[in-house]
Design goal:
This protein is α+β, with helices and mostly antiparallel strands. 56% of the residues lie in helices and 7% in strands. The two termini are 30 Å apart.
Amino acid sequence: MSHPHLPPPYPPPPERSAELRQRFAEEARAERPDLSALCLLIGAETDGALDEAGIDAAQAELDRLAGELPYRPGGPRAWAEAVRRLLGTRYEFHGTPGDYQRLESSLLHEVLLRRRGLPILLSVVWLEVARRAGAPVYGVALPGHFVVGFGTAAEQVLADPFDGGRVLTGTDAELLVVGATGAPLHSSMLEPAPPLEVVQRILNNIRAWAAARPERSDVALRAVELALLIPSHPARLRYERGQLLVQRGQFVAGAEELEHYADLIEVVDESAARKVRQEAGTARAKLN
């Protein structure tokens, strides 16, 4: 299916899309969700050019990179330095300000090819490569800037994959947080981010990219619909999906989704629910 008026990526055909979504939903409900698998399913649902062979090749590349890490280099700092040397220095994975303007920066298969991406996607590469090699590694969702952590809270070492895996020292993390939010660093910000939280944030980034490009509401809708498959998703995603459907001319489906959201929030906020119902009514009126 080509869309002559839009640049790629183009979505997969409906049957492929349905299958990818089912696999995504199953993985998201697994006892231990596989972060790289979820990221590659997002990639395949966003970019129809990513087939099964491409997904396998991306997983094989993560395995290959992990195989190049030294065997048990030592404590958390030794791990952080070893991963930095391999991914940041040797393979030159890092980010630049321009990467924020590119959808590929949120797609793991593209990040593995280009060795560029958003902080959170570069962190996924660090996490998946280091985890496969046996490192005590996890994501750390600092406000506005995702990084990775090695070791327990008592001996935690942070690294910034966007900056080539630079190992953060002393006040570095505080400066990152203050720079992003103006607020001080709180110890709760340094706790490991669960895989589903990472995936939800990646989908948020894709939605933010598409929101700035109204002609790519197709990309936004797919990201919202994947986010709705994650258990305990925010109810507000329903509202967003309803608005996107209306924007895309699917007035009845959009109105139904808006009404469903109004039902959900009525108990908490009656006036907000009333406003959403008015939006739904407006959408239905557009059919005439």
